[in-house]
Design a protein that fits this description.
With 412 residues, this protein is an all-alpha fold. The protein is built from five helices and no strands. The chain is elongated and about 230 Å long.
Length: 412
């Protein structure tokens, strides 16, 4: 502190020394001071007016610079929003293009796989080994040409098989005709020989039969003559009655046995029919039960199918509803984006584009210097005669205070 105050102390002491050496004249100092005050009083009004004019110019420049800054900010905000909208639109178009490209690539991949499977099927049908072929080799194969070649080979194979069948049929026809033509005389000869042999055999059989019949007749005549000589025919009725009596007893016994057997068979048949009827009733009951179970299973299956069909229909309706909502939202979003792009961009800070209002007119009524107004005027520009921009902000445009009155003294 002592080092910083050395020069001021030296100056004060030198001034004191000079006053002691040559004391100043009080009258001249008073006259100079009076003249100075008079000059200040005479120029204070013009200087005040000049200061006010300079303040107005400075305020206009500041307002113009602030307006330019606001316009630049609004232009930058509008450009930024336009760029953002353009970027979003480009991003949406890019995503749509990528989606279409992915779908196209997926469809192309599926089509390529189907063509590869069809080519492998054709190659396998043509007898070629398609398992060892690469994807590039399969792509080089022309499906239409391969299908045409396969069809041509199949047609040729079919025509060749038909030709072979016709040739074999023709050869077989020729062979059969030749064999039949050659064997016809032999068949006729064999037929004639057989007819002759059959005729000879038949004639011999007729002669042998007649001879046997004659011999048997002669033998019977001799036996009858011998029986007549022995008077056997006189006891024929007794023999007949005895034999018939024995046969009648045997016949009755056999009839009785047959009746018993018939009764037994009837009883067995009755029991068999009863068992069969019972078995049929059980079978019918079982079939009815099975049919009822099957009908119940069919009913449950039908109900389950209807339930699944209803669930599938509901899911389909929900998906369609969601898709419609999504499409409507997308259309609304696109319309909103188009309307936003078509409308001018809003001003920065949420203000709408309107006529520029100076800071001195933003608070309320009154003149430029805050006289007669309730909004405080432009007191943020500073008090007095052109004070600092950031002095006295407690009574600015937000505080609502009044601006202090100007003074006539520069040093007060």
């Amino acid at each position: 502190d002592e080092m910083r105050g050395q020069l001021s102390i030296l100056a004060k002491r030198l001034t004191t020394a000079c006053n002691i050496i040559s004391p100043p004249e009080v009258s001249s100092v008073a006259a100079e001071r009076t003249a100075l005050y008079a000059e200040v009083r005479s120029s204070i009004e013009s200087e005040h007016i000049n200061t006010l004019e300079r303040k107005v110019v400075i305020e206009k420049r500041k307002e113009e610079s602030e307006r330019l800054v606001q316009e630049r900010l609004r232009a930058e905000e509008a450009a930024r929003k336009a760029e953002e909208l353009a970027r979003k639109a480009e991003e949406d178009r890019r995503l749509a293009r990528e989606q279409k490209m992915r779908e196209k690539e997926k469809l192309q991949k599926i089509q390529d796989e189907m063509e590869a499977m069809e080519k492998k099927r054709y190659l396998t049908a043509m007898g070629r080994n398609a398992e060892n072929m690469t994807v590039e080799q399969l792509k080089e194969v022309d499906t239409a040409a391969l299908a045409k070649e396969h069809a041509d080979k199949a047609n040729k194979k079919k025509e060749e098989a038909e030709r072979k069948v016709k040739e074999a049929a023709r050869q077989l026809d020729y062979l059969v005709r030749a064999v039949r033509i050659e064997e016809l005389p032999r068949i006729k000869e064999a037929y004639d020989t057989k007819i002759k042999e059959d005729r000879t055999r038949f004639e011999q059989d007729v002669v042998d039969k007649a001879t046997r019949a004659k011999n048997q007749w002669e033998k019977d005549i001799k036996e009858k003559a011998s029986l007549r000589d022995c008077s056997v025919f006189n006891y024929t009725s007794e023999f007949q009655s005895t034999i018939m009596t024995a046969r009648t007893g045997v016949h009755e016994k056999l009839c009785k046995e047959e009746d018993e057997l018939a009764e037994l068979e009837a009883e067995k048949g009755k029991l068999t029919r009863a068992r069969k009827r019972k078995a049929d009733e059980a079978r019918l009951a079982e079939e009815a039960k099975i049919a009822a179970e099957k009908a119940e299973a069919d009913r449950k299956a039908e109900e389950e199918r209807q339930r699944k069909e209803e669930e599938r229909r509901q899911r389909q309706e929900e998906l369609e509803k969601k898709e419609r909502i999504r499409m409507e939202e997308q259309r609304e979003r696109e319309q909103r984006e188009r309307s936003e792009r078509s409308q001018p961009a809003p001003a920065a800070g949420g203000e709408t584009r309107s006529k520029y209002v100076p800071p001195s007119r933003r608070g309320g009524g009154g003149n430029r210097w805050g006289v007669g107004g309730s909004g405080g005027g432009s007191s943020d520009r500073g008090g007095g005669y052109g004070g600092g921009r950031y002095e006295g902000r407690d009574g600015g445009r937000d505080g609502g205070g009044s601006r202090p009155a100007p003074t006539n003294s520069r040093w007060s």
